[in-house]
């Protein structure tokens, strides 16, 4: 993690959210279980841009409005990604839990302008080399192996045993790592900790271990390239250095694994709890594709994303934004903005959600398509193999992880008729 440097640190100016006495602390049980209600309350009190407090009562703005998130992400000249602009650095300890998100790194996430386009172009072309039909076949094979482990028991916990495991195996395979083994398991666990730390976890240390493991992978692929994303990035004519590939590969894996796992699990929860999908999921009148899309609108895996930093003083949603202010993109709040969904109706056929963000820094094409292949194949294969799948608990007993960033269940217990392999 690169030190942001003291030259960019100065006290929060008057008018920034640090001086808002009614700023909301992001987090807590209410936010964990019913974030949509929290977003509605914030809109009523503050409008489309709300003052909030991050871990350690660090001030920021939460952008809740759909139009406002679109505006921020479309105007990099006003709201940029280089976090060294932040005027709060002198108040941020080195072990701050959100440091993996905001501590400046020389990665595609924090680059701007021509350099960002160069780095994003390498990722895009590497991802375009992934054959979607082969990926679907691989994901189906992975799903079959995972299902075989619990099909005979009649019960399963799908979050850890299926939804988390499938994209993990698919992503590491695409990147040229072995799909099993202690190194791979540790890498995936460290990615989870850095993205969605539980109590007692050390996200900064976990993020450092991710970097170490990927440096070894890049070294191995530099010596012996193969038909994988890592090798394609290394061999790209843009000539990225090994460290640049490590940084950008970290972003690719982190963006693909944990969010896709939550997308799968959140979609399964919808299918198993919403009567529109029938008494059992095999008889539903709505398709798996519609359920996947509705999940992105109502329970998007990445709830909030930090962030953007104001390049200069400006106005947003009726708020005075000062140069160096931090803005959190409220993707979940924007997706349920009543300005775009009157009467709270969400059309499952509409794909204009912001779950993959927007603008130059959105998820690079074709990443959303690959995530859809993984999620759709996972859900469809599970329902085909276990057609009478039902929840093993009451819907209200399902618990969400205590994260304001990722939206995912702690567990999804199910039961079904045992299948003899």
Main attributes?
421 residues; alpha+beta; Cytochrome p450; 3-stranded antiparallel beta sheet; 15 helices; 45% helix; 10% strand; disordered N terminus
**Mean pLDDT, as a whole number?**
88
- Which structural category fits the helices and strands? alpha+beta
Largest sheet: 6 strands, mixed
Q: Biggest sheet: strands side by side, in what order?
A: 1-2-3-9-6-4
Q: For this structure, what is the CATH homologous superfamily?
A: Cytochrome P450
Portion of residues in beta strands equals: 5-15%
Based on the coordinates given, report the CATH architecture: Orthogonal Bundle
Topology pattern, helix = H, strand = E: EHHEEHEHHHEHHHHHHHEEEEHHEE
Radius of gyration: 21 Å
Give the uncertain stretches in residue-range form: 1-15
Task: Kindly report how far apart the N and C termini lie.
Answer: 48 Å
Give the class-level CATH name: Mainly Alpha
Number of helices: 15
Which word captures the global form?
globular
| Beta strands, count | 11
CATH topology call: Cytochrome p450
Helix content: 40-55%
- Structural domain tally: 1
Protein name: Cytochrome P450
Family: Belongs to the cytochrome P450 family.
Organism: Streptomyces atroolivaceus
InterPro entries: Cyt_P450_B, Cyt_P450_sf
């Amino acid at each position: 993690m690169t030190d942001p440097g003291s030259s960019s640190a100065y006290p929060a100016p008057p008018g920034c959210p640090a001086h808002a006495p009614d700023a909301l602390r992001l987090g807590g049980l209410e936010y964990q279980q019913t974030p949509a209600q929290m977003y509605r309350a914030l809109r009523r009190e503050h409008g489309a841009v709300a003052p909030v407090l991050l871990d350690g009562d660090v001030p920021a703005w939460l952008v809740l409005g759909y139009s406002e998130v679109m505006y921020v992400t479309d105007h990099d000249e006003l709201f940029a990604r280089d976090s060294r602009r932040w005027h709060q650095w002198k108040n941020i300890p080195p072990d701050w839990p959100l440091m993996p998100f905001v501590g400046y790194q020389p990665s595609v996430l924090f680059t701007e302008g021509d350099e960002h386009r160069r780095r994003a172009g390498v990722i895009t072309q590497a991802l375009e080399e992934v054959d979607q039909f082969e990926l679907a076949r691989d994901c189906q094979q992975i799903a079959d192996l995972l299902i075989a482990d619990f099909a005979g028991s009649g019960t399963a916990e799908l979050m850890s045993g299926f939804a988390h495991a499938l994209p993990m195996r698919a992503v590491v395979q695409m990147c040229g790592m072995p799909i099993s083994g202690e190194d791979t398991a540790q890498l995936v666990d460290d990615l989870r900790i850095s993205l969605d730390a539980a109590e007692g976890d050390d996200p900064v240390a976990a993020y450092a271990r991710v970097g170490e493991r990927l440096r070894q992978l890049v070294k191995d692929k530099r010596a012996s390239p193969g038909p994988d994303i890592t090798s394609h990035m290394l061999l790209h004519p843009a000539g990225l250095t090994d460290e640049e590939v490590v940084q950008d590969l970290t972003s690719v894996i982190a963006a693909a694994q944990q969010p896709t796992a939550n997308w799968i699990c959140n979609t399964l929860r919808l299918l198993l709890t919403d009567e529109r999908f029938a008494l059992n999921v095999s008889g539903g009148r709505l398709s798996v594709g519609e359920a996947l899309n509705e999940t992105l609108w109502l329970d998007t895996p990445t709830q909030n994303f930090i962030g953007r930093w104001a390049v200069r003083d400006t106005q947003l949603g009726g708020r005075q934004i000062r140069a160096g202010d931090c803005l959190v993109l409220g993707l979940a709040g924007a997706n349920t903005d009543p300005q775009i969904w009157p009467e709270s109706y969400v059309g499952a056929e509409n794909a204009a959600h912001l779950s993959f963000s927007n603008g130059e820094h959105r998820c690079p094409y074709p990443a959303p398509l690959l995530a859809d292949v993984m999620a759709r194949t996972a859900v469809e294969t599970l329902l085909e193999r276990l057609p009478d799948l039902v929840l093993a608990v009451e819907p209200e007993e399902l618990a969400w992880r205590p994260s304001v960033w990722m939206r995912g269940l702690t567990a999804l217990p199910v039961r079904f008729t045992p299948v003899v392999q």
